[in-house]
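Let's sit down with a protein and look at its sequence and fold side by side. Please make up or recall a protein chain and show it to me in full. Label the sequence line and the structure token line clearly, so we can match residues to local backbone shapes. Go ahead whenever you are ready, and we will take it from there.
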Amino acid sequence: MKRAAIISIVFMFLFSSVAWADTVNYGEELKNEPATSYQQKFTDVSKDFWAFSYIAELVEKGVISGYPDGTFRPNNSVSRAEFAKIMIGASGLKAAATNTSSFSDVKVTDWYCPYIETAKDFLNGYNYAGKTMYLPDTAAVREDIAIAMVKLKGYDTSVADLAMLKTMFSDYDSISESAKKYVAVAVQQGLVSGYDDGTFRAQKSITRAEAASLLWRASQYGNDNKIIAGDSPSTSTNPSSTSSASSGTSSNASTNSSTSSNTSKGSSTTKVSKPYSIDTIADAKVYKSTYGIYGDAIAISSDSIYDYENDKCIYKSNISSGKKEKLIDLSQWYEDQKASADDEDTDNVYNDAWKFKQIYYSESQDNLYLVLQIGNSKNGLFAYDNNKFHLVASNIKTSKILCDTKGSKAFAYNDNDMCFGQIDLATGSEDVATSEVLVMNAFNAKAKDGKIYLTYGESTANAGYYDFTDLTSVCSSESTNVFAFTDNFICFPGTSGIKRYSYTGTEKSDIDFDDVDVKDFTGLFSSSIDYMYGISDDEIIIYDSTAGSFRLLSKNK
């Protein structure tokens, strides 16, 4: 599916010079950058970062900004709705309140509706089953961005040199037919080029750093009077000579701090103070289990998120900085274990059939654990140490570790027998519950007040507690099996916000989505929340598979 609409232009800064055609001085765009020298403002954007000057100059002008923790998160992706707002704010256009929407998937009440309506002549939509859709939550991609910027700049596409485009890019056929003339003109005008390997990568999503360089680049070319916010139309193309924008004209849904304006009612200048905000931590393509659950592939410590992804690798993302690193390739690790183990040592543990079951982080042991199905029905418990997993025990019944209990013991679930038990993380020894309680699925749990609070069920779920004798329901969800346990609340996504209950089952104040200041993505909908983890009553980590990212919902101070 072709997704967004404005990205291409930004990438011209990323690419080194290669002479592809006489009509384009390939790589020349890299030589034109802001002349003003700036001090480093963000901890994750050093002066030698390729987009440092573009980011610094647009921040100086008030077009974009960073995060309260001092980061900019340059590699986070930008959605189609976000880029609509960034483009409108940076181009000098004004988003006016509207009572109508041109797209079936954009409601008038959505914060981004005024921006999309203002930008609809520049941003392409899609036709599905007789409906015109904008796909606001999907990532903006290179070819669609080229279309938008060429339209915004007012270039004549009748002069598009498609032969040149085909000569330049080996993946020419990957560019949508309707987009080729726009991409060609964008290349001809120096707004965008390609990668060192001779590809254009039309369907690649755009990052925040690329968006910054794109917007600055667009202000330097063309015969129109579109300007970066704060510039005067009569100024030269040297951006260092322009004046700073007032804070009232800055509008960027993906980059404003918690005190910035959120124009969900259609006003582009009215500041709205909202009690909560939500930011992207890191992008992720989390593995989805056979039960349709993402939580089995996610483990969270006090400072990091661990997740098992579709490429069979486990990644670690820092919650504060968003920095993401590959921890281990499970496929390669498993093959190495098979190759290095002696027959008498393996006891048929490492064989050709293995299946991921769960990763789990134990706070009491301060360590990451892995459960794999090895063989036909056996499970194995592995502990992470020295950059690899080590076998703790094979032939265990535990399929899921739910929460720490006491010492090295953890509360566990056996999906074959559908019952609870305990497992010793140090030895792998297991204890079956004294009184078995059959449960279809157990999702997550928290030890509290001598009880185990947990969620269980099928397509929808209950939250309740297990007192090691009986299982008692406390509350149930509307249409999800996604819950989070905080210090004082049991939380799950409702139709219009995060619903919160006390541990006794009394409904408490909800977090309404209208009270959330969206930072780094375009919406917060219960149907897109696939996992939640409570850090505290005022901080919840969310995984959204639609956007493919971890996000932090937190109360503004």
